[in-house]
Write a structure and sequence with these properties.
Distance between the termini: 14 Å
Shape: elongated
Number of helices: 5
Number of domains: 1
CATH architecture: Up-down Bundle
Structural class: mainly alpha
Helix content: over 70%
Strand content: under 5%
């Protein structure tokens, strides 16, 4: 996990308390995984409206994990159906960033 992600998650703990943060991340982890799978499924199927909807729903929650790149990728969803977008590269980077966030949550939970 990057230092930035660890710091962002630690900042949440400082604001709401460690116990509450552990509960929050335990609750959120399956949702983050579910969103990743749904986004990947809609992207592969080229279901643009559904993909954009799930991306929009995911933007706010990824901020607390400290992944600026994932937030940027989710914001780019509104342009995903344009011809100039390399879908394979986008999909690979989106998957990589989601995995980093998921791993980061797991690592933070294991450390606390």
């Amino acid at each position: 996990m990057s230092n930035k992600m660890f710091a962002a998650m630690g900042a949440v703990a400082m604001q709401i308390g460690e116990k509450e943060t552990i509960e929050l991340f335990q609750f959120a982890l399956p949702i983050v995984i579910e969103r990743q799978h749904a986004l990947e499924q809609h992207l592969r199927a080229k279901e643009w409206a559904e993909f954009k909807q799930f991306a929009h729903k995911s933007i706010g929650s990824v901020r607390i994990y400290g992944s600026e790149r994932l937030e940027v990728l989710l914001r780019q969803a509104h342009d995903i159906d344009n011809d100039g977008v390399d879908l394979l590269a986008y999909q690979q980077e989106l998957s990589k960033e989601f995995e980093a966030v998921i791993d980061g949550i797991r690592e933070w939970l294991a450390a606390h």
